[in-house]
């Protein structure tokens, strides 16, 4: 249940969700496996555990969803090995080399014949709607995977007014300050990983891993480069890498936080999963609020 990578969105109009109606709406778009010549299938699955036969789960102000993605695996080497003899045979028959479009058509035809025999690979992407803060948090580092989930949920609900949770331009400016050890988000300190990139066309990059970020050799790069990734640490709570586009990667919860509900054990699975969900979501809400207030300070009247 503990998320590792975040794509975060702001819901601009609160979603008035009824858990029973929501579950029924998601069930209409439930996951079904790839069959025959299907190359890819997407659909909602049980978000917390297979034993919990519901496509949406509610705990207090939190709603949990999960999208299952299954795709057929056809390695390029396998396709090329099967494709080349067909190209050779057709070129011999026609007495001339095949053009690019002809080769592409032959390749697409071959893929269709191979799909029924291909292995399938499945992944599940979880997401939380925090109705108290109107945040939609997707557990993925991939923008396309997050958009897949949002798109299908939008289709199920009829609408889903979601926008990026933070202004990327203002975030970039703040990250410059944070790396210079100035005006860090409340409760956070610099970690040991950073990436910077020059803003010109060539875009020279420099990466630091397990490094003292306050060292002169790191700080000197702020003169001609922009911070694109930065590790921040909240002592005894968590560490993360925030990226210039607002995504969060390498999210790690410290044992003190992750083990908070160990006394509950696992005999009551739902109770334990819900308890961990609340701990994680409350911590994430605090983190996101701190970042957003730091990057986009509230205007006082």
Secondary structure: elements and pairs:
Blueprint: E1 7-11, H1 19-27, E2 40-44, E3 57-59, E4 62-73, H2 76-94, H3 100-114, E5 119-130, E6 135-138, H4 143-157, E7 162-164, H5 168-179, E8 189-197, E9 205-208, H6 216-219, E10 226-234, E11 238-243, E12 248-253, H7 255-258, H8 269-295
Antiparallel strand pairs: 1-6, 1-7, 2-4, 3-4, 4-5, 5-6, 8-9, 8-10, 10-11, 11-12
Helix pairs in contact: 2-3
Short description:
The protein has 301 residues and is an alpha+beta fold.
Question: Which descriptor suits the 3D outline?
Answer: globular
The beta-strand count equals: 12
Uncertain regions spanning at least 5 consecutive residues: none
Provide a count of the helices.
Answer: 8
Mean pLDDT: 90
How would you classify the helix and strand content by structural class?
alpha+beta
Outline the structure in words.
Helix 2 packs across helix 3. This protein is 35% helix and 26% strand. Strands 1, 2, 3, 4, 5, 6 and 7 form a 7-stranded antiparallel β-sheet that branches. The chain has a 5-stranded antiparallel β-sheet with strand order 9-8-10-11-12. The protein has helices at 19-27, 76-94, 100-114, 143-157, 168-179, 216-219, 255-258, 269-295; strands at residues 7-11, 40-44, 57-59, 62-73, 119-130, 135-138, 162-164, 189-197, 205-208, 226-234, 238-243, 248-253. The mean pLDDT is 90. It has 8 helices and 12 strands. With 301 residues, the protein is an alpha+beta fold.
């Amino acid at each position: 249940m503990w998320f590792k990578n975040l794509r975060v969105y702001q819901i601009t109009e609160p979603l008035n969700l009824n858990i029973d109606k929501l579950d029924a709406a998601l069930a209409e778009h439930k996951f079904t496996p790839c069959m025959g010549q299907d190359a890819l299938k997407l659909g909602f699955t049980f978000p917390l555990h297979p034993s919990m036969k519901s496509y949406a789960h509610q705990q207090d102000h939190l709603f949990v969803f999960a999208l299952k993605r299954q795709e057929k695996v056809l390695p390029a080497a396998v396709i090329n090995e099967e494709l080349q003899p067909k190209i050779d045979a057709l070129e011999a028959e026609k007495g001339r080399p095949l053009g690019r479009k002809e080769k592409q058509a032959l390749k697409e035809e071959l893929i269709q014949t191979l799909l029924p025999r291909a292995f399938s690979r499945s992944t599940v992407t979880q997401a939380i709607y925090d109705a108290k803060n109107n945040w939609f948090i997707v557990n993925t580092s991939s923008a396309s995977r997050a958009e897949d989930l949002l798109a299908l949920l939008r289709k199920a609900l009829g609408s889903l007014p979601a926008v990026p949770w933070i202004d990327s331009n203002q975030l970039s400016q703040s990250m410059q300050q944070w790396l210079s050890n100035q005006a860090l988000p409340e409760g956070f300190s610099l970690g040991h990983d950073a990436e910077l990139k020059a803003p010109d066309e060539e875009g020279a990059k420099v990466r630091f891993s397990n490094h003292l970020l306050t060292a002169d050799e790191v700080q000197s790069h702020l003169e001609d480069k922009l911070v694109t990734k930065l590790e921040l640490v909240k002592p005894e709570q968590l560490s993360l890498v925030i990226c210039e586009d607002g995504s969060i990667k390498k999210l790690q919860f410290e044992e003190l936080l992750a083990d908070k509900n160990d006394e509950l054990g696992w005999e009551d699975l739902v109770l334990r999963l819900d308890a961990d969900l609340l701990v994680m979501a409350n911590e994430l809400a605090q983190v996101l609020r701190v970042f957003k207030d730091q990057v986009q300070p509230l205007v006082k009247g």
